[in-house]
Amino acid sequence: MKMENNIKRIGDVVKSVANQLGGRRVSRLYTRLMNRIEVLPDDKFAYLMLTPAFILMTIIAFWPITYTLQMSVREDHDIETVGEFVGLENYYKILTNDANLLAPFFDITQPFYSSLTVTIIITIGAVVLSMVLGFAQALILNETFKGQSVMRVIVILPWAVPIVIQGMIFRLMFTPGAGVGVEWLDFLGFANATSPLAYSRESTFIVILAEAWKHSAFVAIILLAGLQSINRELYKVADVAGASRWQRFKMITFPLIIPAIFVALIFRTIESMRIYGTVVAVSGCGDVTVLTCSVINEFSRHNYGTSSAVAVILALIIASIVAVYLTRFAQRGGISQ
Question: 74 pairs with which residues across the strands?
Fold first, then answer.
């Protein structure tokens, strides 16, 4: 009923504007259009409202994507000129390690695959940790207690911190003599805990912590929205049936929050695969060489063809991962939910 009233209100406004601008003919056209919109099902009306945003995003993204694809199949050249067409040669050099990419110092013989390995390790670590922390935060914020509003602000604060400041915080935390992070690494058994930022393994671990700390707030917001959409009557029925807190979580909370988990998982995976700012702010690309570092490095060396090819490969990897997520989501009946 509320949606129908909103549609009618929009139709009245459009009709009034049409009368002022185009007269009766335009008014009749808009009237017929509004009449058709009024009878649309809720799902189709939602798609209709989202269409302008999708069109705008497509227009904005079309040129950069097209130009990147064009440069990836041409030889390295000045950005203001068009290089000779070389087909898939840039991709072949990258995948066969013939391209002179920025390489992790622990394996300079396979720069692309080593950088991909580092990227995947950071993605898995940061996504898992941020999902666990975010889920815990969402469960706490979903409870009613004194100071709930203040707690929500505190949880969201890390997400609002700029990446540079985030990097400085964690860099200071793990600087010998300045932060407590060195003691933590020593307690966890890291071999180079006394100077962690000088070594690849320790620096990668610090980057994972920084990513999880910042983006767990985003996960908490998404999952909290999912938790608050659950019908409270279900919990009342469970209480009457004598269900424990664990049984309520297992039978009600977790199954109904799965769609929100998939949404958060997709966004976090995309962000972690594209990580760059946190790496540069915490340790630099020399110690933690992710694929985005290779893209930026090749671009700064005016190797625009190679840089574009790495960017396209990274985009295809991300698209493949998202496709797997969406397939699993659809198989679980998430689309219908």
Answer: 85
Give the number of other CB atoms < 10 A from CB of residue 218: 18
Concatenated DSSP letters of 144-202 = --TTHHHHHHHHHHHHHS-HHHHHHHHHHHTSTTT-SHHHHHHHHT-TTTTSGGGSHHH
CA angle 216, 172, 164 (to 5 degrees): 55
Output DSSP code: residue 333: T
Tell whether the model's pLDDT for residue 36 goes beyond 60: yes
pLDDT band of 14, cuts 50, 70, 90:
low
Tokens of 183: 């003691």
Dihedral sign, Cα of residue 117, residue 268, residue 201, residue 91? positive
Instruction: Return the sign of the alpha-carbon dihedral for residues 168, 197, 265, 58.
Output: positive
Q: Are the C-beta atoms of 286 and 296 separated by less than 8 Å?
A: no
Of the candidates 123, 124, 121, 91, the one whose C-alpha atom is nearest the C-alpha of residue 106 is 121
Q: What is the distance between the alpha carbons of residues 295 and 267, in angstroms, rounded to a whole number? A: 21
Distances in whole angstroms, Cα of residue 99 to Cα of each of 105, 245, 294, 308? 16, 56, 11, 13
Short-list 201, 169, 165, CA closest to 185:
201
Amino acid at 117: T
- Residue 160 exposure: Cα atoms within 13 Å on the Cβ side: 7
Residue 335 has a pLDDT of: 45
Long-range contacts, stretch 106-111, CB < 8 angstroms, 24+ apart: 106/200, 111/289, 111/294
The strand ranges marked E within 38-85 are none
DSSP string, 115-144: HHHHHHHHHHHHHHHHHHHHHHHHHHHTS-
Quickly state the pLDDT bin for 87 (edges 50, 70, 90). confident
Exposure string of 257-282, with b = 16+ CB inside 10 Å and e = fewer, is bebbbbbbbbbbbbbbbbbeebbbbb
